[in-house]
Amino acid sequence: MIEKGQLPALRAHGAVFEGREFAFTNRDFRRIAEIFREDAGIALPEIKAPLVYSRLVKRLRTLGLETFKRYCAFVESEEGAAEREHMIAALTTNITRFFREPHHFEHLKYKVLPSLVEGVRRGNPLRIWSAGCSSGEEPYSIALTVLSAIPDAERLDVKILATDINKDVLTAGHQGVYPESAIAQLSRQQRADWFTPSRDAGREKVWRAGEALRALVSFRELNLMGEWPMKQSYQAIFCRNVAIYFEDKAQTLIWHRLAGLLTPGGCLYVGHSERVNGATEKFRLDGCTTYRLAEGTSG
Ligand SMILES: C[S@@+](CC[C@H](N)C(=O)[O-])C[C@H]1O[C@@H](n2cnc3c(N)ncnc32)[C@H](O)[C@@H]1O
């Protein structure tokens, strides 16, 4: 693996990796970083060059391309549109887990849902959005939290929207199949009530989110940098560990746009190291990395 301090010296040769299986020059890196910034809003500092190489090398092998220069040209061409999506998917970070940052789910359960349950039982809609949902652990954790307060949510007007830029993670989320280790945080009761045990192709024990759980969550492709089709508002939005990868201006824009989609007093949950910088006037803090839409704010 290339060391951080070596990069400038190698750049003088115009090659980030010389002598590797595929030629990868600094120019190639800059082209890829520019596409990624344009499409996903995510900045790639030069220190990420080794990561870019290791994540994309499989794509070059699959396509039978010999250099990153050719790969860049393909991705930038009209025929390369589908590959551009593969590239974005390969470069995004999808780490997630069930009930990550559990205090957000406690907040949802004890500070948001209680005042809504009665209205939902009378037919009012309950809408929650997991923006940057990865492979589904976050929206299913939201669904499990909702079910703990409203066990018959499936029969009411309750919907959890789960969106991501990466089609592969959306497919995984839609299937809702997780290894036993991934659902270790769930109680026995939650597993028994809402998951079905089964075996994967390698005969490992896996758990599939049951029909009632899956029915609450809709997975959709959505680039947070692009147009947002939704017209309705949400009582809660989880946008955690997503905007942290965006440039400052893009982050501020996202917080403003999310504020515009919250119901009065609605909640925005962000990642543990994120803050709603540039949009603080829209929110008031209501717990650790938990923001309520400020009174008199309509987004
Ligand atoms: C680190 S994961 C976080 C998953 C989950 N929110 C959590 O906190 O566990 C970040 C997710 O954001 C998605 N993402 C990155 N850029 C995006 C964009 N421009 N639009 C939508 N999703 C994006 C990635 O594909 C990835 O699945």
Verbal overview:
By secondary structure, the chain is an alpha/beta fold. It folds into two domains: 4-91, Chemotaxis Receptor Methyltransferase Cher, domain 1 (Orthogonal Bundle), CATH 1.10.155; 102-293, Vaccinia Virus protein VP39 (Rossmann fold). 41% of the residues lie in helices and 19% in strands. The strands form three sheets. A seven-stranded mixed beta sheet has the order 8-4-3-9-10-12-11. A three-stranded antiparallel beta sheet has the order 5-7-6. A two-stranded antiparallel ribbon has the order 1-2. Strand 3 (126-131), helix 8 and strand 4 (158-164) form a beta-alpha-beta unit. Helix 3 (49-63) packs across helix 5 and helix 6 packs parallel to helix 8. The model is unreliable at 1-10 (pLDDT under 50). The chain binds S-adenosylmethionine.
Q: What portion of the residues fall into strands of 2 or more residues?
A: 15-25%
Supply the CATH class of the largest domain.
Answer: Alpha Beta
Order of helices and strands: HEEHHHHHHEHEHEHEEHEEHEEE
The total of helices stands at 12
Output the CATH homologous superfamily of the largest domain.
Answer: Vaccinia Virus protein VP39
Give the % helix.
40-55%
Give me the CATH architecture of the largest domain, please.
3-Layer(aba) Sandwich
What fold name goes in the CATH topology slot of the largest domain? Rossmann fold
